[in-house]
Amino acid sequence: MRRIPPLALFLALLLTACAPHVTDTSLPATAAPVTEVPDSIVIITDALGRTVTLPALPQRIVITGKALFMIADAAYLFPEASGRIVGLGNAGQGTSNFISLIDPNFADKVILESDAGAEQIAALQPDLVILKSYLAETVGAPIEAIGIPVVYVDFETPEQYARDLAIFGKVFGNEARAAELTAFYQGKMDSIQQTVSAAPKPRVLLLNYNDRDGNVAFNVPPMGWIQTQMVEMAGGDPVWADANPVNGWAQVTLEQIAAWDADQVFVIAYSQNPSDVVAGLQADPNWQTLRAVQEGQLYAFPADLYSWDQPDPRWILGLTWLAGRLHPDLFADLDLVVEAQTFYTTLYGLDTVFFQQNILPTFKGDLP
Fold first, then answer.
1. Quick check: 87 and 68 in contact, CB under 8 A?
2. Distance (Å, rounded) from C-alpha 328 to C-alpha 94?
3. What is the C-alpha separation between 61 and 47, in angstroms, rounded?
4. Cα separation of 177 and 316, whole Å?
5. E strand or H helix at 217, and its extent?
């Protein structure tokens, strides 16, 4: 038998020990490759339940479409909004424009027409467009068709407010701020509802007054709108519950208003000072026959730059005021000036001097 030299035997053993064991290290055939998501990517689930993926936090945001001021006012609850919104439609209502007061960069913004199309929006080179969800087909689809991402929000009800603030938290990269804002609104709602939970519910009528083309009309909101929800949360019973099955304001006659015989009547006016409207109604012989007018229970819904009844961030002030009017004994210490100043300081970071100079003088309606 031939002997293997010791050195050769050692080398053979060494090579065998170093040989790769393929069967021990191979991946199973069914294993999926691991894909890492870059830290910069932003994934948003919008109001339509769609997943919108952005490569990074958007730096050039455009807000457009109808009812824009409600979205814009909500966006500016986030301190990042001023530096990232490059274009928006008319953020005013009537002669007031809150955003122009609080945004130091407002002069640099491009103000779009209300019917601005995809080409006009694309000219601003946005990396995100924000729209109301009901505009998805008419406005959003053409924008998305040219490769610009769109995020849809609603901001129409208290429930939607919590969801849409969370969406904005993603958009602006400030989810902690979204949580703070949601807690502010929820805390106010919970406090009011707990206070009025055991109280008798007065019968309430809420009317929108308008005199377009010189024709005076009164309208009631649908049950699903925030105006009706505010009456219910404030501890009132909306007498028009079965009168408006449609999706918008429904016109009612003075005869119907009289037949409802509400304990308290609240009048909203968007294009006029609501206090002036109520003063005119109180002097009207036809309205003087109503029990609510005779008992001093006809009120002008308050406003500052914008009315407090709308699904604008100010709706929480409207809810607070309404609860105080419906149940004055339960809110004897309520000071709406203090409430409003707290609102603007907490939500917009505006100081006392700004509030006293720019907000307080605009108060309208039945406020102290």
1. no
2. 32
3. 17
4. 18
5. strand 217-220
How many angstroms separate the CA atoms of 17 and 22, rounded?
13
DSSP E strand boundaries for 76-160: 85-88, 110-111, 128-132, 150-153
How is residue 41 written in tokens? 């990517």
The DSSP line for 247-303 is SS-EEE-HHHHHHH--SEEEEEESSS-HHHHHHHHHT-TTGGGSHHHHTT-EEEPPB
Return the CATH number of 42-188, one of 3.40.50.2300, 3.20.20.70, 3.40.50.1980, 1.10.150.130.
3.40.50.1980
pLDDT single digits (tens) 169-223 = 999 999 999 999 999 999 999 999 999 999 999 999 999 999 887 889 999 999 9
Condensed to tens digits (0 to 9), the pLDDT of residues 94-127 reads: 778 999 999 999 999 999 988 899 999 999 999 9
CATH number 3.65.10.10 given to 199-362: no
Identical topology for domains 42-188 and 199-362? yes
Degrees, nearest 5: CA angle 256-260-261: 120
Residues in the chain: 368
Residue bearing tokens 């087909």: 137
- What distance in Å separates the CA atoms of residue 59 and residue 146, rounded to the nearest whole number? 19
The pTM of this model reads: 0.87
For residue 154, give both structure tokens. Answer: 């609603």
DSSP character at residue 74: H
